[in-house]
Amino acid sequence: MTGLTIEKMAEVCHGEIFPGKKTAETAGAEKREARCVVIDSWKIQPDGVFIATRGERVDGHSFIPQVFDAGALAVICEKVPEDVPGCCIRVEDSFRALTELAAYYRTQLTAKIIGVTGSVGKTTTKEQIASVLRKKYKVCATEGNFNNEIGVPLTLLRIQPEDEMAVVEMGINHFGEMSRLTRLVQPDMAVITAIGECHLEALGDLDGVLRAKSEIFESMEDDAPVFLNRDDPKLRTVQRKNIIPFGGECPAAEAVGKYLGLTEEQIREGLEEIKPLPGRGRRIDCGSFTIIDDCYNANPSSMRYSIDRLLRLAPAGRVCILGDMFELGSGEAELHASVGTYAGKAGVERLITVGKLSERMAEAYTSETGIAAEHYGSTEELLRALKTLDFTGKTILVKASHGMHFEKVVEEMQSGL
């Protein structure tokens, strides 16, 4: 990691170096460059740096001896243990140190960085863009959904000097978060997938969502390429010097690929090589039925998007198991009802709803179709009932907010109903 020596890290995070026991292995450690920077002790590599952070359930400081046993070059921590076997950098706030390190390291990188945000499909779009660009470039991309104020710095610190492109997913739920992230990432290009009804409890309405997502432009050059979904009414209102539209027959990954010089064949091959992530629209063949596992998270916009996808994939036998959506603010009841109405009008043949908020979804679907939706008060109640439900010949969309833990529903359905 170019430039990240122990001395430089201590300078960047305003930390104090405690050299630890002097051995042949630790001699000159202060001037060696770190191989990696991690906050999970099990991810440490020889000559890596471990940042000990305090969480609600686990204190990373308790793992300091183990990371030195695994060959860590140094540890950044808020409290230096007694008899520590290696070099420690003591800081006031480990999370702030992580951000400060990432901000400095960003200035050392030559890779072009593409920031990806939006209310729907951030992770899928990020995976698609990265897969396409790997046909021509050396690419680093956000792992999973490490897209918040902890995940983004960790992603930046994973970018290697030889990487030519980096695709960084950037997620928020409050005003000001994107401003902080974009100052850190300094994106050369940006992709906004959609503006939907997410985090309305904090962002208010769709105009608020657009305003919060548009903070990504604050640390970009005025003429930097911005890829916007022109099928989205709110994104059509954005005014920038260098807007590259996508949507319809031209998805985001194709638009980015074309802009960066990839051929149509390279783009097609890149898209074909994508492996769907668990909870992100993955299709699971269970023999007598098929699951569309989209259970990682949900908002009204992504619900409608996923229902549309179900209709494209299944000409008949279309079933939805849908659960509560959180952080929607004062309009949460009406927004849940709107999803039920949408499912009914779209042609969903059977709706199973879960959770207190989703009662309105069930009522609206029943009112729209005349077909009684099946409602369960909690995920646990549905899990107990699953073995009695017949899904033979059906394609079932499973989706809810992350707090509903619908991954348990997918696991139970896979286990052999």
Kindly list the characteristics that best describe this protein.
417 residues; Protein-Tyrosine Phosphatase, Chain A; 3 domains; Udp-n-acetylmuramoylalanyl-d-glutamate--2,6- Diaminopimelate Ligase, Chain: A, domain 1; alpha/beta; 17 strands; 17% strand; six-stranded mixed beta sheet; 34% helix; UDP-N-acetylmuramoyl-L-alanine:D-glutamate ligase
Task: Tell me what the structure shows.
- The protein contains 15 helices and 17 strands.
- The longest helix has 15 residues, at 94-108.
- The chain has three domains: 6-94, 3-Layer(aba) Sandwich (Udp-n-acetylmuramoylalanyl-d-glutamate--2,6- Diaminopimelate Ligase, Chain: A, domain 1), CATH 3.40.1390.10; 109-272, 3-Layer(aba) Sandwich (UDP-N-acetylmuramoyl-L-alanine:D-glutamate ligase); 282-414, Mur ligase, C-terminal domain (Protein-Tyrosine Phosphatase, Chain A, Alpha-Beta Complex), CATH 3.90.190.
- The model has no long low-confidence stretch (mean pLDDT 94).
- The relative contact order is 0.09.
- It is 34% helix and 17% strand.
- The strands form three sheets. Strands 7-8-6-9-10-11 form a six-stranded parallel beta sheet, with helices on both faces.
- Helix 9 (252-259) crosses helix 10 (264-272).
